[in-house]
Each structure stands twice: as C-alpha cells, then as structure tokens.
Amino acid sequence: MKRIEVWADMVCAWAYIGKRRLEQADLGEDVEIVWRPYLIDPMAPARSEPLRDALRDPVAEGALRACHPVLSPAENRARVSRVAAAERIGEHAGDGGRRWGAVWRANTFDAHRVIALAYGRGGAALQGAVVERILRAHFIEGSDIGDRDTLAALAAEAGLGGMTEALERGDGAAEVRSELLRGKAAGIATSPTFVVGDTAVAGAQPPEVLADLVRHAAPRRELPDEVRWLRQAETLLDVRDPLGALRTLEPLMAEHGDDPAVRLLAARAYFGSAQLGRASETLESLLERTPGDHYARFLLGRTLERANRHPEALPHLRLAAAMSPEPEYLDTLRRVEHRLAG
Q: Could you tell me the pTM of the whole model?
C-alpha cells in the first residue's frame, strides 16, 4: 500500500482546496492518505481572536505567508476565495452569495492532536472525516477550532468520541510535537505539502499532478530508528533548532547514551541552546574516551570561551588547532589568545 502524507494546517485554505483536489485525483487502489501537522501561525494565541483584528498585526500577517509564500496574505485571500468557488467548497446562501471565509485566528495545536488521535483510533478513514469536519467548521461555518469544546463536538460529529477527556489528559501532544519536528527536519515549509516516499510536492496541486506523484514517487528508504533520529537531530541543528534536536535525541540518549556520535550531537545541541554547563560536562566525558576527537576538543574550547572561562578554553583550542588547523579553529584560538593578552 502506498501512503500519501499531507502536511497541512487547518487554518490554511489551500489545505482545504488541496484536499478536494486529492479526492478528485485518480490515485489507484491501495493508497492511504494520512494527515500530518504543520503550523503556519505558531505564535497564534491560546485563546482565539477575531481574524479581522489579527490581520492588523504584522507578525500574524507574516506568519500567514506560509500558506502561500508567493502571494501577500491579502492577495492570497482574494485568490483562494475564487479557487474555492471553482472547487465548489462552501454553501450558497439564501441571498445568492456564498458562505466562505475564516472568522477566527485560531491556535491549531489541539486540532492537530485530535487529527492524530483520529488516525490512531480509527485509521485514515476516520482521520479524513475529522479533517473534513474541522476544515468545514473553520472556513464555512465560522467556528472557533481553537476551542477545545468546539473541537470535541466536531470530532464527535465525525465519529470520534471522547475528545474532551483526551484533550484534558494531554493525549496526542507528544506525537504532534514529534511530527512537527520530523516535518521541519524534512524541509516542509508550505501548507499543504504532499509527500509520497521520498518525493514531495508543495501547494494545492491539480489532481493530475497528485496522481503522477503517487505513480512515480521514489520509494522511501527504510532506515533504523536510531539512524533516522540521528539524521533528524543533525538537520534540526543545521536549521538552528537545538531544542528540537534535543527532543529528537531523547530516545537515543536513553538507550545509547554512551555512543560517541549521540553524545557529540547532544553536546552541539546543548551548546546551541546555551546550556553551557551540560555541554562542557558532556564534552569532557566524551574526550575522556576519545581524546583525539579534534572537533569535540574545539567545541569544548568554544563552550568554555562562551562561558567566559578563557584560560580553561585556551589549551583545548590549541590542541584542536594542532590536530586539525581548520580556519575556524585558528580564528577562535587567536581570538582567545588576544583576549587573554589584553
């Protein structure tokens, strides 16, 4: 069975349009559609606010560009209304107009929790029904999908009960946070993004493009969990998310905490998140076992320098530069020498 992962946010109208187009695509048999979380507005307040007021905030305006990076939010809203009408999304009102358009700036973290729980409890069919109900509520009915009571009622209408208690217990929160990190590490930057295997297309693509994606996507390379977590942590460090890297490394630290590669990644993440005590402790322990690791030696010197422990940093930086005279090593060594000489 092939799987289409749809990385999308429930407050992105292009996600709703993408869902309709996916439903129209000739995907063949044995294709599973799974919805994954993406946040276009991660700074949205816990309590929803009227969208009209929020759009006066340049921070919110900028966040909404993730729903369509090319168009301004105003241009995107005008265009998406026309496209939604062409896709027959919405209802005709009695006066001949159409009911369409979000009313609330909602934080969708809890909505993503409900969607994740729907898949866990009832598979892709139930999850798809819940996604449809939430999208319809947000864009057509003007409901506040950031409100837990509203979410629980919508989920129940779609066939998923017990969400009031589940949300209160925190069910699904860890899974959604983990998936958000996985998406970030995979380079997901637009809602919606469709992924099959190791191939992705961004945006609400036409049905024929989505059908071609399913037919021609490269199969995903299956990797052991340990390798996948290591690569994800490295990627998150590269995109300057050290706290995300540390969360990714948690299972590896629990099971393989003595592995030098794991410890070095953890030290980099500690350094990147300014946890300098933990970084130096981890690096010192690592260097007791692998004293010839010039990068670990250099990073320890940088950590001590950043902690204003320049005399302690100097011998480590000298050793690192002697073992591997990298320009960064030499520049850092000269900087610390100059600081001590002055």
A: 0.84
